[in-house]
Amino acid sequence: MLTDALLRRARAFAAERHGLLIGKDWQPAASGRRFDVEDPATGAVFASAARAERADVDRAVTAARGALETGAWAEMKPAERSRLLWRLAALLERDADLISLIETLDIGKPFAQMRGLDTAFAIELFEYNAGWPTRLAGDSLPLSNPGDWHAYTVREPIGVVGLIVPWNAPLMMAAAKLAPALAAGCTVVLKPAEQSPLSALYLGRLVQEAGFPPGAVNILTGFGAEAGAAMAEHIGIDKISFTGSAATGRRITLAALGNFKRVTLELGGKTPVMIFPDADLDKAASAAARSIFANTGQVCNAGARLYVHRTVFDRVVEAVAARAQSLRVGSGLDPETDMGPVISAAQLDRVTGYVATGRNEGAEVLTGGARLDRPGHFIAPTVLTGTSLDMRVAREEIFGPVLCAMPFGDDDLSRIAAEANGTQYGLGAQIWTRDLGIAHRLAARLKAGTVRVNGSGLDPALPFGGFKASGWGREYGREGVEAYTELKSVAMALPEV
C-alpha cells in the first residue's frame, strides 16, 4: 500500500549517495564521476548514481572471477545456491512495496501496476529459478566406438557474465537475467540502464543481506557507451545477456568477437494482434488495449499492430479507442493513474515524431496523438487507422502507446501470416479466435518466438525470445538457465578385464 511513510523511505533511499557494488563493498566510481537521475513524471532530478567506466568494469570482473574460481561461491553446493535464491525471493517479497515505489519514482509506472505485475513477477522468477541448481544435469550416452566406453555430458557454469538491462522494466529484467545466471553457478556483473538505476541498487542490498558471497553479484551503474561497451569488449567476461535496441545489440555482437563470448540478445518487436470475428470481441478488444497501453507502450512485446477481420473491425477498434480515451494519464504516485509518462524527453520526442510521420504518410489519428501540456513526459494513448506496412509507423518499433489498426478481409491464413510477418521483428504474436484449427494453422505460419492464443502474459517456465531482428537465444524456462552453462562431453575408454 502506498503511504506517506513509504514515500518518505523511497525518497530517502533515492537521495543517498549511491556507489557501485564491487566484491563486498559499495564503492565510488574510480573517476569519482556521478550522473543525475530524473523523475519522468516531473522532469526533475531526484537522485544520482556513480558513473562506472572501464576501470570499474575491470575491478568488477576481477571480483567476479575471483568468486567464480576460489572461495565460498566456487565451493558452494547446488542446494545452497538454491537456498540463497529462495532467501533473496523472500527478502524481495518483504520489501516489495518499497522497491516498487522506488521503481515508480524512477520510471513513472503506476505504483499498483508496478507492485502487482513487475515486482510480483520478479519474485516469481527468483522462486522459479531457485529450483534449478539441483536439476541441471547431463546425459549418459551410448557410443559405437570399438571397445567399452562410459560417456556422459555435464553442464558447467559458463563463467563470468555481464547482464545489461533496459529502462522499461528494470527490476523484472534484472531478475530475469540474474536468477538463472546464479542458479547455473555463474558470477555476474549487472548494469542497469542509466535512466533507471535505483531498483538494481536496492536489489544489491538484498543480495548482500541474503548472504551471497562477495563477488558473486557486482552492480555497476553508468552509461551504455562507457560501462556497457567496456563489458561487451572485456576479455574476462564469458557471456553477455542484453535487452534493448537492435542497434546496440549489433554493437555488442561485434564487441563480443574479441574473445568469442556467448551472447543472448532480446531486441524488441512489433507484435501483431489478430482478432477473428468468432472471438470473444469484448475480451479481445480489452486485451488489445492493455497490450499496447500497459507501461505506456514501453514494452518489447507490446501489441503495436492490431489486425481485425473487416466484418468486426469498426466495433473492435472503436472499443479500443474508447478504452484509450478512458485511461487516466498521470503520475505513478496517483492511485487513480492508469498510464504514466514515457521515460524521458527524448523518448517523448521519438513517440510524437512517429505519430507526425504517420500522419504525413496518410494515417488517421482516431484518438490521442498529442503530448500533454504539463510537467513531465506525457502523451495521450493513441490509435491510428488507415495504416499499412508501407508506413514507418506500422513497420518500425515506436516503444510508446501508439497502436496501428488494420483490417483483413479474407480467411487465407498464409496471406494473414505474411502480413503479420512483414516486419524485421519476430518476438511475439497474439491470436484471438474460438476456432482451434485457425489458431494452430496460423501459429505454425507465424515467425515469432511466442504465440499466444486468447490471452497474453509471461510465465517463468515458458521460454521467451524472438526470431529475426528480435534477437538471439531464449530467457525463462529450462532454456533460460541452460543459456548460462557450457555443455562438456566426457568419454572414458574402460580398461579390459
Structure description:
The structure is a single chain. This protein is α/β, with parallel strands linked by helices and 497 residues long. The chain folds into two domains: 4-267 and 472-486, 3-Layer(aba) Sandwich (Aldehyde Dehydrogenase, Chain A, domain 1); 272-459, Aldehyde Dehydrogenase, Chain A, domain 2. The chain has helices at residues 4-15, 54-69, 71-75, 78-94, 96-107, 111-130, 170-183, 198-210, 224-233, 246-256, 281-293, 313-326, 345-360, 392-395, 413-420, 436-445, 477-482, and strands at residues 20-22, 25-27, 34-38, 45-50, 140-141, 149-157, 160-164, 187-191, 217-219, 239-243, 262-266, 272-275, 305-309, 364-367, 382-385, 402-408, 425-426, 428-432, 450-453, 467-468, 471-472, 485-493. Helix 4 (78-94) packs antiparallel against helix 6 (111-130) and helix 11 crosses helix 12. The longest helix has 20 residues, at 111-130. The relative contact order is 0.13. The model has no long low-confidence stretch (mean pLDDT 97).
Describe how the helices and strands are arranged.
Blueprint: H1 4-15, E1 20-22, E2 25-27, E3 34-38, E4 45-50, H2 54-69, H3 71-75, H4 78-94, H5 96-107, H6 111-130, E5 140-141, E6 149-157, E7 160-164, H7 170-183, E8 187-191, H8 198-210, E9 217-219, H9 224-233, E10 239-243, H10 246-256, E11 262-266, E12 272-275, H11 281-293, E13 305-309, H12 313-326, H13 345-360, E14 364-367, E15 382-385, H14 392-395, E16 402-408, H15 413-420, E17 425-426, E18 428-432, H16 436-445, E19 450-453, E20 467-468, E21 471-472, H17 477-482, E22 485-493
Parallel strand pairs: 7-8, 7-10, 8-9, 10-11, 12-13, 12-18, 13-16, 15-16, 18-19
Antiparallel strand pairs: 1-2, 3-4, 5-6, 6-22, 11-21, 14-15, 17-20
